[in-house]
Write a structure and sequence with these properties.
The structure holds 2 protein chains of 2 kinds.
Chain A (H helix, E strand, L loop, with lengths): L7 E4 L4 H12 L4 E5 L2 H15 L8 E5 H11 L2 E4 L5 H14 L5 E4 L6 H5 L4 H5 L1 E6 L8 E6 L5 H12 L5 E4 L8 H19 L1 H7 L10 H8 L1 H14 L12 H8 L12 E4 L2 E5 L6 E3 H4 L5 H11 L3 H10 L3 H19 L8 H10 L6 H8 L1 H10 L6 H9 L19
Parallel strand pairs in A: 1-2, 1-4, 2-3, 4-5, 5-6, 7-8
Antiparallel strand pairs in A: 6-7, 9-10, 10-11
Helix pairs in contact in A: 1-2, 3-4, 8-9, 8-10, 8-11, 8-16, 14-15, 16-18, 19-20
Chain B lengths: L1 E8 L13 H16 L8 E5 L3 H4 L6 H5 L10 E4 L5 H14 L5 E8 L6 H8 L5 H5 L5 H17 L3 H15 L14 H5 L7 E3 L2 E2 L9 E8 L1 H10 L8 E10 L4 H7 L8 H14 L9 E3 L5 H10 L8 H6 L16 H4 L7 H13 L13 E8 L4 E8 L1
Parallel strand pairs in B: 2-3, 2-4, 9-10
Antiparallel strand pairs in B: 1-7, 1-8, 4-7, 5-6, 8-11, 10-11
Helix pairs in contact in B: 4-16, 7-13, 8-13
Chain lengths: 430, 406
């Protein structure tokens, strides 16, 4: 279709996602306009973009401006308008109405939303707007995390989707997966199911205990509750509330925000950005939240010894024997091992179970969990456990057995077939 | 004749310390990945060689050859050894393995190059790297000695022939640009441009002399393994895999020379020589002669040792792309670019792909073999039939060159 992206306008360029996404465009040498409410905020976004790519040289591709003075003119000449304003449907719609009036007919409009309905966001705009509108979900920080979801809605022109996919995978260097316009798309749907489930289990078993049990040895760089503190409790709540309200599948109960977290959000406990979440620093001491009382206690008081099967998993992973680590995971006995299997097998079941609904193939879930979350992709875990053994364990745990898993077991093939990706990088002993 | 049956490289962007891994995990992943990639069964491996610079310092672990035996039960009893020649350690391991094959002792060798460097801070790592120079005389108490030594290499060029930093910036930009095509390159997601490489800023500080951050290769964790084989073994392997012997990569020639350890002694030795590092030039000429080629124009590409932009600048005239001192011509005429007449480092080299010290020589040979067999993926040089590698230990001290073709 001969389309080209000669310039980009970023709305909300002062925020983490706006400045980070703007940095990605500018680093590719695409002239990019950073817009924010004030000139100072837009300039702060530019400085932040420079620090994210560690270069002032990208600034030759960045100009800044305000919504009031510059939006209409900038949008009128933009080939791509990239929206990264607050994650609120009404706010976004207000911006889109203004963009619709100012934009040229063939420009592409994208939202970085992490889970709101793409179709709902563009409802009420012109047909031209809707045809050229889609979601581009980068993960924070986009200059480092290359995993990216591309979400057309039912009215997106397929040629636009295909053009944007090539742009993302080519000059912008992204690992792109296409997902359906379903709540929270693929990555956050699968990822926050696990995160919220661990937060729920922490109410009974304790925060330090759960984060240790579902720690790096279970296939993630960062423990789950540390991750929620990093993401922010408000963002976590927005994502799981959306999923609880708008999905109804086997994981529905896992999306219910625990009451103690709701109390925390009400009291302004939002994780790292408020310096208190599941964890809190008190000088040199690390404190841990007691979900029952809402008080913090020293980690040293509540810490429990590492279960011996976890010790065994970690010592196998440390020397690169990942298969042996998963043997221990499968065979370990006791309540703790059962709990870990519930979470990890639940992840495999729910992740691969979204194939056909949210994504077309297992590879898509694998890529977004691997390159967006830095978690072991479900297929990597299945290959390390063995497809047949995974099915047996899923059945024992009364978890859904995804069709792709049955097919892999029948054909006796591996599920993760990406020779350019080291599987070992997803197993952590740290 | 020694054949390269294939190999495996770990993702050089990984931080194995953050993953909580011991160096044995790196050797295991590289070796098992290599066996899987080549289809060679563990019980077919007859000898193992490990190239590594300083695991005793970085990981408090010596005796790395023995860790090969741990990779697979079928490797029990395998004769192994470890080789060290600073940043050329990997190539020395390759030379040892290929000499044994040529001598007829063994038909099939596994060679692993490995370095885990992110176990310590950059300052401590810089001090460890100083042992690749004459430590007491050149590195002790010096912060980041190697950038300074390779800065002096640039200064020597400047003194004899003139040198512009913008030419070095182009070398950096080409290597980073090529690395974006390489799915295993450490810097594949990093930002770099010629404009950035030209400027001095808080994001591109001077490290020593004329060397800025953008002129430097990386601190990298990485392991690479290849299988080398005799013609007899390679022929049977090719037949079994449904291919032909002539489709396999082989080592057509090699060169290996050592200059004095101290940088100033090297420069003194070359005072009346048009080449700043004459022993490196000799290693290149030895390899050309053994390969039966007249000059660099018989090559389709080069994987060279760009530990700093100045070392690639040196390699350009030493390989004979230009007359001595005129490397800038090849840069200005874009000869070394990915689509140039003689591309250098399509992988991204040490600056872009990464420089896990003891693994680099093996990585270069693997990349050369992938190129000449058309398996280099996105960074494939079209129709490449012959590649050369140059791996350098110390400040131009140990030079090893391979010519790889099919």
């Amino acid at each position: 279709m001969g389309k080209q992206i000669r310039n980009v306008v970023v709305l909300g360029a002062n925020g983490a996602m706006g400045s980070g996404s703007g940095a990605v465009f500018a680093a590719a040498g695409i002239p990019t306009v950073f817009l924010a409410r004030t000139k100072e905020k837009a300039e702060a976004g530019r400085t932040r973009a420079e620090s994210m790519v560690k270069s002032t040289a990208i600034s030759r591709f960045i100009t800044t401006g305000t919504y009031e003075a510059d939006l209409d003119r900038a949008v009128a000449s933009a080939d791509l308008v990239f929206e990264a304003v607050a994650e609120d449907l009404d706010t976004k719609r207000t911006f889109f109405s203004r963009v619709d009036k100012a934009r040229k007919p063939d420009s592409i409009v994208a939202t970085v939303s992490s889970g709101l309905s793409i179709a709902a966001m563009c409802a009420g705009q012109s047909d031209s707007f809707k045809n050229n509108f889609l979601g581009i979900h980068f993960f924070n920080p986009p200059t480092m995390i290359v995993g990216c979801e591309l979400i057309p809605h039912a009215g997106t022109d397929p040629a636009v989707t295909s053009f944007v996919r090539d742009l993302l995978a080519g000059p912008l260097g992204r690992e792109v997966i296409e997902t359906a316009d379903t709540p929270a798309f693929a990555g956050n749907r699968v990822g926050f199911k696990v995160l919220n489930e661990v937060a729920q289990l922490a109410e009974e078993h304790g925060i330090a205990f759960m984060d240790q049990l579902v720690g790096p040895h279970s296939g993630r760089a960062m423990p789950p509750l540390v991750t929620i503190d990093f993401v922010g409790w408000d963002v976590h709540k927005a994502i799981v509330d959306n999923l609880y309200a708008n999905t109804n599948d086997e994981a529905h109960a896992a999306f219910e925000l625990p009451a103690y977290m709701q109390r925390g959000v009400d009291a302004g406990t939002l994780g790292n950005k408020t310096k208190a979440g599941f964890f809190k620093k008190d000088g040199k001491n690390l404190l841990v939240l007691d979900p029952k009382t809402g008080n913090y206690r020293a980690l040293s008081e509540v810490a429990t010894p590492l279960p011996s099967f976890v010790e065994q998993m970690k010592s196998s992973i440390r020397v690169g024997r990942y298969g042996r680590a998963m043997d221990v995971f499968c065979a370990a006995e006791g309540k703790e091992a059962d709990l870990l299997r519930k979470v990890v097998l639940g992840y495999i079941s729910y992740g691969l179970g979204r194939v056909g609904e949210v994504v077309k193939q297992a590879r898509d879930v694998d890529r977004i969990m691997g390159f967006g979350f830095n978690w072991a992709p479900p297929s990597v875990l299945v290959d390390a456990i063995g497809a047949r053994r995974t099915i047996t364990l899923l059945e024992q745990g009364k978890l859904a057995v995804p069709r792709v898993l049955v097919e892999a077991a029948e054909k006796n093939t591996s599920l993760f077939n990406e020779p350019e990706v080291d599987r070992g990088r997803f197993f952590f002993a740290a | 004749m020694v054949y390269i049956l294939g190999g495996f490289q770990t993702d050089f962007a990984r931080n194995w310390t953050k993953e909580g891994k011991h160096i044995s995990a790196m050797i295991r992943e590289a070796a098992s990945g290599c066996l899987a990639a080549t289809g060679v069964a563990p019980n077919q491996i007859e000898v193992g060689h490990v190239g590594n610079f300083a695991a005793e310092l970085y990981s408090m672990q010596g005796h790395l050859g023995a860790l090969l035996v741990d990779v697979d039960p079928a490797l029990s009893g395998l004769p192994t050894g470890r080789h060290e020649a600073a940043c050329a350690s990997g190539s020395i391991a390759l030379l040892a393995a290929s000499a044994e094959i040529e001598a007829g002792r063994y038909d099939c060798a596994l060679v692993v190059g490995v370095e885990q460097m992110k176990t310590v801070s950059p300052a401590i790592g810089g001090d460890y790297l100083g042992t690749a120079a004459w430590y007491e005389l050149e590195a002790k108490g010096v912060e980041f000695p190697f950038p300074k030594l390779f800065g002096k290499l640039g200064d020597e060029y400047d003194k004899r022939y003139g040198l512009k930093d913008e030419h070095l910036a182009h070398i950096a930009a080409v290597n980073y640009g090529n690395a974006k095509k390489n799915p295993k390159a450490q810097t594949r997601t990093w930002y770099m441009s010629e404009a950035h490489a030209c400027e001095v800023s808080s994001y591109n500080a001077v490290i020593g002399g004329r060397i800025k951050v953008s002129d430097c290769s990386q601190v990298t964790d990485g392991a690479v393994a290849v299988v080398l084989a005799s013609e007899k073994f390679a022929a049977a392997h090719a037949k079994q895999r449904g291919t032909k012997l002539e489709h396999l990569a082989r080592i057509q020639g090699w060169g290996h020379r050592t200059a004095p350890l101290r940088f100033d002694d090297k420069v003194a030795e070359s005072a009346n020589d048009p080449y700043v590092l004459p022993q490196t030039r000799r290693a290149i000429l030895d390899a050309y002669k053994r390969a039966g080629i007249a000059d660099c124009w018989a090559l389709d590409g080069i994987e060279t040792h760009d530990c700093f932009t100045t070392s690639e600048y040196m390699a350009i005239d030493h390989f004979g792309l230009t007359k001595p001192g005129e490397s800038w011509r090849a840069i200005e005429e874009r000869v070394i670019d990915f689509d140039g007449k003689l591309p250098i480092n399509p992988s991204g080299g040490l600056i872009g792909a990464g420089h896990p010290v003891g693994a680099t020589g093996v990585r270069q040979l693997l990349d050369a073999s992938l190129q000449v067999t058309g398996r280099a993926g996105n960074y494939q040089v079209p129709n490449a039939k012959r590649f050369a590698t140059l791996n350098i230990g110390g400040s131009g001290t140990t030079s090893v060159v391979f010519v790889v073709g099919r």
